[in-house]
Amino acid sequence: MTSKPAAPTLPPYALQPTPLDKLLIPAKLDGSAGLNRAVTGHAQIAADNDLDAIRAWLSRFVDTKTTFENYRKEAERLLLWSVVEMGKLLSSLTHEDCLRYQQFLADPQPAGTWVAGGGRKHPRSDPRWRPFYGPLSPSSQRQATVILNVMFSWLVQAGYLAGNPLSLSRQRTRHAAPRITRYLEPSIWQEVKDFIATMPKQTDREKAHAYRVRWLFTLLYLGGLRIAEVGANTMGRFFVRQDADGALRWWLTIHGKGDKQRLVPATRELMMELSRYRQHLGLSALPSPNEDTPLVLPIGATASNERAATCAPLTRAALHAIVKDVFAGAAARLRERDDAQSARADLLEKASAHWLRHSAGSHMADRKVDLRTVRDNLGHASLTTTSIYLHVDEDRRHQETEEKHRVDW
């Protein structure tokens, strides 16, 4: 058996990091001569370079939007780091390189090259796009490693790589139950609500933005929705049915993660906020069955000047930016009021839309909502997942969502 010649050490790639779908890699860095390329057997994919191999792996997930985007993000980041930062073929990465990359995830530097300005998510077509929005938390670092391990293992199985450089880093599963830390404890959540209540409403645009923000935060918190679920579902998914006692109860059907559907209780408070938002837009107080109106609309979309149902839903990046702006505003307001609150303000500035989902689960558990109710509301597969939201007494008796889970604007 003849071994492949050593790949040359090359200077870092001169271009800025570019999205995977537009990435052009120089021939010397494309991976066709990678040191970790399989030299025996028959490859089961047609890819002859690293970029095509990654695309072959990602093609398995194109029917599941959220999974595809998450997997593409992590593969994209590693490939760009390997080429741009290391000047090295992805298919030549060693175990030591992977350890170095894990350190890079904790603080992507230089920030001007790797991190989007202000931590904002820009569209992939925007020249301001960057692979990162800031340092990754320890849990996000672990998630990235898990995804990349899956990718490397598949490329080995497909006959493209000789070995998985991450396999040496795999850790035994910890038996201690994890606990969610990325959530807003009630007093900080109150700061966010107070900030939303004081948002300016002098102009029509300010008023429209304030109504939209209040409705968006209601959906994310009361419904426990993921931000992708807000953009992917419509108001026509609300429906009403009569329970065994003759009471009419509203529900929201969510098409969510993993192409699964779940029923979210649309409490009286949630329906009141929906009616408030719709009436501001000039729509009927309640949606009609199968109505195509997005759950959250762009500014200026009203019944008087445009059919709301014809509006394109806000992108996940746009929804994320709205939420981050509110958290930043609440943090600034907190600092202005009390210099001693800097630690709490710092926490708010780190928060994202998903923190509201974690906050919803944590607050429901703290208010004695039955864990089975929390599980089904959030769409968890098991109570083991839901138990991460227990922050108070794990043996409390439980109450229903309608009674215990409120936003209380």
UniProtKB/TrEMBL annotation:
Compartment annotation: Cytoplasm
Q: Name one GO biological process term.
A: cell division
Q: What is its main location?
A: cytoplasm
Q: Where is the Tyr recombinase domain?
A: 179-402
Q: Which UniProt keywords apply?
A: Cell cycle, Cell division, Chromosome partition, Cytoplasm, DNA integration, DNA recombination, DNA-binding
Residue ranges annotated for the Core-binding (CB) domain, each copy included: 48-156
- Pfam families according to UniProt: Phage_integrase
- List, in alphabetical order, the Gene Ontology terms for molecular function in this entry: DNA binding
User: GO CC annotation: what is one?
Assistant: cytoplasm
Protein name according to UniProt: Integrase family protein
State the organism of origin.
Caballeronia novacaledonica
Organism lineage string: Bacteria, Pseudomonadati, Pseudomonadota, Betaproteobacteria, Burkholderiales
